Amino acid sequence: MKRWMTLCAWMMAASLTAVADPLLTPGTGVANDHGGYGTSRDIQFVPRSTETGYGYRSYVTGLGFTVLPWSIPNRESTVYGVRTNLGWGYFANSTGLDTGLFSHSGYCSGLQINVFGNLTECNSDGLHIGLVNVVGQRQRGLQIGLVNYADDLAGVQIGLLNFTAKQCSLPILNIAW
């Protein structure tokens, strides 16, 4: 148990350090390798034109998998098929079946069934089932959860608290077209 607590504390400290001093500086083409032995040096980082600004190649894949915050193949990828989340996971786009604990996408289309919830930054088409479902722009389809939010809704929300940017509908059903 003590080793587990030490590992969790180390991971939390590492994530806070990464937020304060990111490895890659977006838009500058410079990465810091954080030397390890008291030395730190900047490394020139020049992405190829087919890669994202961080230099990761974005893939289109039929299977996506996330463990805690790590996405396989990587977070810039698009999944057309099946996506499984153990913990929290992000992919740029997701189309098809999305299952697990918590899902985060740029755009989503299809069936999302996640225990804790679903977060889609842009538009979403399809069915969302989870404790909390949030769509940053237009939701077309059905949301089922304890709390549901869509900036613009063209469908149905079923839950205890249902919100859109223009209206709030308390218990059970919210329908908008």
Report on the structure:
- The structure is a single chain.
- The protein has 177 residues and is mostly beta strands.
- The chain has two domains: 2-44, no CATH class; 60-176, no CATH class.
- The protein is built from one helix and twelve strands; from the N terminus they run αββββββββββββ.
- The chain has one helix at residues 2-20, and strands spanning 24-25, 30-32, 42-44, 60-67, 70-72, 78-120, 124-129, 132-144, 147-159, 161-164, 168-169, 172-176.
- Strands 4, 5, 6, 7, 8, 9, 10, 11 and 12 form a nine-stranded mixed β-sheet that branches.
- Strand 10 and strand 11 (168-169) form a beta hairpin.
- The longest helix is centred in the first third of the chain and has 19 residues, at 2-20.
- 28% of the residues are buried.
- Residues 13-29 and 43-53 have low confidence and may be disordered.
